[in-house]
Amino acid sequence: MIRITCLFALAQLLLAGCASPVFDVGRSETVLPLSRAWVDGRTVEYVTTDISDSAMAKMMGANHVPRLADAVRALPTQSLLERVYKFPKDEQISIFQSAPNPIGGENRDRSYSPLWRVVLVHWASPAFVNELRSEESLLEAERRNELKLEVTDIVVNCPVTRASGGQALRGVR
After folding, report:
1. Distance between start and end Cα atoms, the chain
2. CA 133, 137, 139, 143: dihedral to nearest 10 degrees?
3. What is the pTM of this model?
4. Residue 172 lies in a domain
């Protein structure tokens, strides 16, 4: 009976993973810069921790993780990646395909993933530049030949930390 109890306790510790610390090392906090993105007409906040491209990782102050690019080829029929539409000339904030709904452990959006495949957005002419607030509006602008999309093999880890309504992950102020 003691052996089963010990095995059960060990299993609980292993399953907890990084969700809860096994040892109390004191209160600690990491501060990361917040960025904003559009999702279906509303803004969300996110942090960037890891990028598969070296130059982009250096520019963003993130970890360079070349292995993230393997996710592009990992499951060709069922991707773990969402698309993030990035404007390389900083004409506007990025556009995400999805976000947790709601933020946190009760998320019901099964399409959300914090792993994003970078798609660069290039305007066909300065005359077409305007703020797009959703993937739908971006794809419509592409159909009108106002912009071109360049799908890259760059993968970024950018978890959404706060919804437009102010709801945030626990621990986020």
Report:
1. 44
2. -140
3. 0.79
4. no
Please tell me the distance from the alpha carbon of residue 93 to that of residue 45, in angstroms, as a whole number. Answer: 11
> Looking at the domain assignment, is residue 150 inside a domain?
yes
Exposed / middle / buried, residue 40 (Cβ in 10 Å: 0-12, 13-18, 19+): middle
pLDDT tens by residue, 78-136: 577 899 999 999 999 999 999 998 888 888 988 899 999 999 999 999 999 999 999 99
> Which residues fall within 8 angstroms of residue 87, CB to CB, at 6 or more apart?
93, 94, 120, 121
Planar angle of CA 63, 69, 75, nearest 5 degrees: 135
Please write the tens of the pLDDT for every residue from 13-55.
434 445 545 555 666 777 788 999 999 999 999 999 999 999 9
Residue 151 located in a structural domain: yes
Q: How many domains, in total, are found in the chain?
A: 1
Q: Which of 171, 165, 163, 169 is nearest to 36 (CA)?
A: 163
**Domain housing 89:** 30-162
Domain membership flag for residue 108: yes
- Written as one string, the DSSP assignment of 55-92 is HHHHHHT-EE-GGGGHHHHH-SSS-SPEEEEE-TT-SS
d(CA 151, CA 143): 16
